[in-house]
């Protein structure tokens, strides 16, 4: 056992085993002996040739910028529990998330499909929005700092890996950050801003789509030279995400996509082109006909009240995309028609059930993005589907005839579905 593995920080955080190393330090699996829970502990490594004044600046910035994200309460940002100064250097105690990062996934699986990258980008935009509202700039957004814990996307190392961008450190010749993902203006020596975080997000999404970052070259200097002198390449695998990625990779910060415009373009890419307004529901059409006929029969002296009441008793009929037979009265128990033979069936149980369903492929093919009212159901027979249910307590879901467990109110569930085939 090494000396570090025997170390207990602040008399409560015991180092258990090393998880990994990076340019800025070592991450340890730890145990909080006071609260009896597993934690992640990052040991920050300072350049050995820093002056004492530079070390003081580093410590102050570390403490200040670690406290700020600790106040953010969003699932898209790793939670910071504590900061400890031990053995002359800072240690950060954080939420332990045992999940691969985006860099590992790209290395293992290659480029990701656009619909998955869109989901990752949307959650990272939420994380940046929360941080930027609090005055925090990440400064080192890159795939290795993005954890993928199932449906949850978590941004780590907030304000730390590149927090020491002070004049003294820059003059010392230490390039802080990742050249392949740093914004051009920051690489040129300007101060990092929320717009530079958005550029890094664009480079991260580009890497997820193409398998490598847009300006990566054989060494740091070649990468920085390409960043300064070459135009951003157009992603080849982005499909509908191309306007989002190219807009974020605009080198001029004033012309770069703002957060709001990036969200808008990403939402439009995820939902696909619209053919126009959705047609009125059958119920609204019936009401319009009732009003027209009521006025007509009234002018003819016919009893309009009896006619209108009789028409209102008529069922508006099922939606063209709903399973045949409509929804049963007990929506929480009985399966709707078609649930046993369809790839996916979703029905609103107790209230509005928002769903997003797409067919995986080289482009984002959205087949449903709507909110079902109580009792409404939709069935899908495509052989491959990705689906998101935004409130697991309000929706019943059947996959290949099997009803999936419900969840908590407001809990989002994602499903990757393949049509069952008979065993022959």
Annotate the secondary structure layout.
Elements: E1 8-9, E2 13-22, E3 25-32, E4 37-44, H1 52-70, E5 80-86, E6 89-94, H2 102-109, H3 114-133, E7 146-149, E8 152-155, H4 167-171, H5 184-187, H6 194-210, H7 220-229, H8 242-248, H9 259-271, H10 282-299, H11 304-312, E9 344-348, E10 353-359, E11 365-372, E12 377-380, E13 384-389, E14 395-399, E15 402-403, E16 413-418
Antiparallel strand pairs: 1-2, 2-3, 3-4, 4-6, 5-6, 7-8, 9-12, 9-14, 10-11, 10-13, 13-16, 14-15
Describe it.
The protein is α+β, with helices and mostly antiparallel strands and 424 residues long. It folds into three domains: 4-271, Orthogonal Bundle (Transferase(Phosphotransferase), domain 1); 282-315, no CATH class; 319-424, no CATH class. The protein is 31% helix and 22% strand. It is built from eleven helices and 16 strands. It has helices spanning 52-70, 102-109, 114-133, 167-171, 184-187, 194-210, 220-229, 242-248, 259-271, 282-299, 304-312; strands at residues 8-9, 13-22, 25-32, 37-44, 80-86, 89-94, 146-149, 152-155, 344-348, 353-359, 365-372, 377-380, 384-389, 395-399, 402-403, 413-418. Strands 1-2-3-4-6-5 form a six-stranded antiparallel β-sheet, with helices on one face. The chain has a four-stranded antiparallel β-sheet with strand order 12-9-14-15, with no helix packed on it. A four-stranded antiparallel β-sheet has the order 11-10-13-16, with no helix packed on it. The protein is globular, with a radius of gyration of 27 Å. The termini are far apart. The model is unreliable at 161-174 and 274-332 (pLDDT under 50).
């Amino acid at each position: 056992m090494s000396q570090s593995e025997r170390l207990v920080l602040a008399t409560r955080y015991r180092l258990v085993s090393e998880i990994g190393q990076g340019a800025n330090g070592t991450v340890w699996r730890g145990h909080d002996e006071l609260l009896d829970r597993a934690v992640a502990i990052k040991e920050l490594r300072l350049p050995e040739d820093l002056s004492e004044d530079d070390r003081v600046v580093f410590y102050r910035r570390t403490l200040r910028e670690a406290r700020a994200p600790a106040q953010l309460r969003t699932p898209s940002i790793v939670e910071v529990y504590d900061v400890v100064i031990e053995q002359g250097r800072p240690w950060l105690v954080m939420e332990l998330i045992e999940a691969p990062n985006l860099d590992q996934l790209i290395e293992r699986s290659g480029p990701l499909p656009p619909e998955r990258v869109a989901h990752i980008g949307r959650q990272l935009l939420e994380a940046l929005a929360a941080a930027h509202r609090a005055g925090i700039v990440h400064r080192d957004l890159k795939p290795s700092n993005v954890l993928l814990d199932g449906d949850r996307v978590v941004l780590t190392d907030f304000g730390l890996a590149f927090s020491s961008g002070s004049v003294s450190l820059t003059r010392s010749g230490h390039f802080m950050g990742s050249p392949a993902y740093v914004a051009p203006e920051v690489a040129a020596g300007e101060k990092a801003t929320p717009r530079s975080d958005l550029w890094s997000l664009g480079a991260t999404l580009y890497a997820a789509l193409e398998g490598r970052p847009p300006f990566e070259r054989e060494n740091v200097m070649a990468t920085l030279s390409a960043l300064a002198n070459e135009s951003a390449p157009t992603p080849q695998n982005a499909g509908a995400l191309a306007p989002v990625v190219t807009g974020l990779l605009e080198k001029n910060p004033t012309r770069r996509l703002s957060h709001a415009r990036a969200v808008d373009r990403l939402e439009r890419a995820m939902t696909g082109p619209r053919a126009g307004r959705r047609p009125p529901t059958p119920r609204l059409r019936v009401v319009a006909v009732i009003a027209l006929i009521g006025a007509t029969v009234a002018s003819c002296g016919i009893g309009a009240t009896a006619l209108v009441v009789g028409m209102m008793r008529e069922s508006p009929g099922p939606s063209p995309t709903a399973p045949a037979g409509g929804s049963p009265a007990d929506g929480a128990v009985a399966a709707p028609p078609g649930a046993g033979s369809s790839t996916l069936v979703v029905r609103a149980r107790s209230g509005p059930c928002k769903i997003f369903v797409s067919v995986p492929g080289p482009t984002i093919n959205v087949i449903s993005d709507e909110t079902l009212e109580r009792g409404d159901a939709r069935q899908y027979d495509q052989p491959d589907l990705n689906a998101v249910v935004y409130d697991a307590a309000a929706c019943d879901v059947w996959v290949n005839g099997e009803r999936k467990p419900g969840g908590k109110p407001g809990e989002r569930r994602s499903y990757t579905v393949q049509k069952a085939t008979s065993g022959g």
